[in-house]
Amino acid sequence: MSDAAQSLLCCNGLSVVADGRHLLNDVNLTLQAGQFVALVGKNGAGKTTLLRAALGLAKPAAGRALLSGYDANTLPGRQRAGLVGWLPQNAPVPEPVAALDLVVAGRFRFNESFAASRVAAQDALAQAGAQEFENAAMTRLSGGEQQRVALAALIAQESPLLLLDEPANHLDPAQQIALYRLIGDLWRQGRAILCVTHDLNLLRFARLPNAAQAPLRVVGLQSGRVSFEVDFDAPELAPSLDRLFGVRLREVSVEGGRLLVPEDTR
Amino acid sequence: MKLRVMMLCVVSLAVLALSPWLGGSLKGDLGWQILWQLRVPRVLMAALVGATLSLVGACYQTIFANPLAAPSTVGTTAGATLGALVPLVLGTILGPQMIQSAFGLPVTALAAFAGALAVSLLVAAVAVQGRARVNDVLLAGIAVSLAAGAISAGLQYTADQAALFAAIQWSLGHLPQVGYRGVLMLLPFVLPVWVVLLLQTRALNALLGGEQRAHSQGVDVPRIRALVLGVGALGVAACVAWCGPIAFVGLLVPHLVRLGLGVNRRVLLPMSLVVGAGFLAACDLGARLALPGRELPVGVITAGLGAPALVWLILRGNRS
User: Fold this and answer.
1) pLDDT exceeds 80 at position A232
2) Sign of CA dihedral B206, B207, B213, B215
3) Rounded distance between C-alpha atoms, residue B213 and residue B20, angstroms
4) A83, A219, A255, B88: least CB-packed within 10 angstroms?
């Protein structure tokens, strides 16, 4: 089979147009099992649109988004849910749904009894370190706790590709670090992860210290086009980001990696 | 939780079992007949209608992610009123015997059924348009309701006094004396509606996490919305055809149930069914007992209870 069939995600010349404007323009991107891609870009660069296209929520004007070789737009819902899971950005749950019930919803694609779904959901909550919130209403959990439960729902869904849209947004530093550690665990279990983020410095918490590192790439989007795709550890990362965001970033070595710090050029 | 579910079931069943015995005296030769030929079928009717309106209301509130969604806000009841008024008014022009019955059914019921179904399907058609947002659908429902209301008012204006009284009585919502025949004719409509709606519990639960998250979990959101709207409209149309637009039941009962039992649709949907049956039977009992020697339309009781209860719920919700 071709490359496309082996990739969990394969965007081929993907373009999405809305109201005459190109949200995505000829985007090519592939993700294999065990790979982590961080998607960066200015607001409005098309990051979320790319995730939506991979979920079959945005219809391509040209090109295709393939999930394990199947077109994301024509896959039946349950089958698609078996190939890709999604952590939406700022998706508040307005009703006081119990955390367990939200995770059980991740089992929708399985044809199983409620009791079986419940067991799987409890297991997923435990993996996400959120078992203590099982009976808590989502509306009463903090932002970090809510994200943990949402990740548990993704674990329960058992799809090999996870699309995460700014998962650590609005969280306090401790919660951000804990969340990226959890994402790193899911990554090392063999899932492919496509993660939209503005804070690349957090990515090092997804890695294990002093271990052989799995491939971690950074893809930059600019006005709907891929402007660069570089390895996270490559020296080209900082200058690529400079051009993308129009700020000067300085590399600062710290124990177990390096940080990118914006310079004050006033 | 289990205890509360049990208690609500027991209370609902108790209301249903007791309400035929309450009211005017059942002594004498006629007593037995009044009980079995008039009151029992009427309580059964109240149970079926209350259960259906409440379940459909709970489902509508879920698919629209809006606590104000109910059969009345998506145009179902307005369509029924419009449909029912046409023969009521035509009857004064053509003579009542012309429109008395077709296929052995009262024409009013048939016309109300057709009106309710037509309007809800129109709104459902808006809902399945991929790009329509939830609030667009509700706005469409309200717009269609207002238009139907205006036409209804116009029809009433042209009607004579007898037709006008019949129209007012109908549009207040009442439980008619239709005997077991009415119950048997309603059953084949509402039972399948209950089954189909309850089978969507998993998808409806997934929708609580947001429309797009549900999509990513495998729920075909436009399909489920169209299905619930269409099937719900069928059940409501069948009820409204007999009883007129009984206000607030579909809106209030799901809110009451979630207050006590939480938002999980696995509990909320079946319990809305049970509590709705008891609620409307209790309201009908109140309608029979409120004025000695006369009967109020049950819609007056449900609206009289429902409106303040809704305000109380809103205030309570704001506080917590």
Assistant:
1) yes
2) positive
3) 47
4) A255
Q: What is the CATH number of domain B2-319?
A: 1.10.3470.10
Q: Which two tokens stand for residue A85?
A: 């899971």
ipTM of the complex: 0.91
Of A91, A96, A104, the CB nearest to B213: A91
| Burial of B197 (C-beta count, 10 Å sphere; 0-12/13-18/19+) | buried
Task: Summarize pLDDT for A178-190 with one digit per residue, the tens.
Answer: 999 999 999 999 9
By the CB < 8 Å criterion, does B203 face chain A?
Answer: yes
Q: Give yes or no for a contact between A194 and A163, defined as CB atoms under 8 angstroms apart.
A: yes
In A, which residues are within 8 Å of B216 by CB distance? 55, 81, 84-86, 88
The pTM score is 0.90
Q: Say how far apart CA B60 and CA B64 lie, in whole Å.
A: 6
Here the tokens at position B41 are 């079928």
What dihedral angle (degrees, nearest 10) is formed by the CA atoms of A169, A174, A179, A185?
A: 150
Say whether pLDDT at A250 is over 90.
Answer: no
Exposure string over B212-246, b if 16+ CB within 10 A, otherwise e: ebbbbbbbebeebbbbbbbbbbbbbbbbbbbbbbb
What single letter denotes the amino acid at residue A164?
L
* Torsional class of B316: left (φ above 0), alpha (ψ -120 to 50), beta (otherwise): alpha
Contact yes or no for B264 and A93 at CB 8 A: no
Which band of pLDDT confidence, cut at 50, 70 and 90, is reported for residue B195? very high
User: For B28, how many CA atoms within 13 A lie in the half-sphere containing its CB?
Assistant: 5
Test B263 with A157 for CB contact under 8 angstroms: no
Residue in chain B lying closest to A99 (CA): B209
- Cα distances (Å, whole numbers) of residue B246 to B103, B207, B230, B242: 25, 28, 19, 10
User: Does any CB of chain A come closer than 8 Å to the CB of residue B68?
Assistant: no
A143-157: per-residue pLDDT in tens?
889 999 999 999 999
The CA dihedral of B240, B109, B176, B86, to the nearest 10 degrees, is: 90
Q: Hey, where are the domains in chain B?
A: 2-319
Residue A175: CB atoms within 10 A of its CB come to: 17
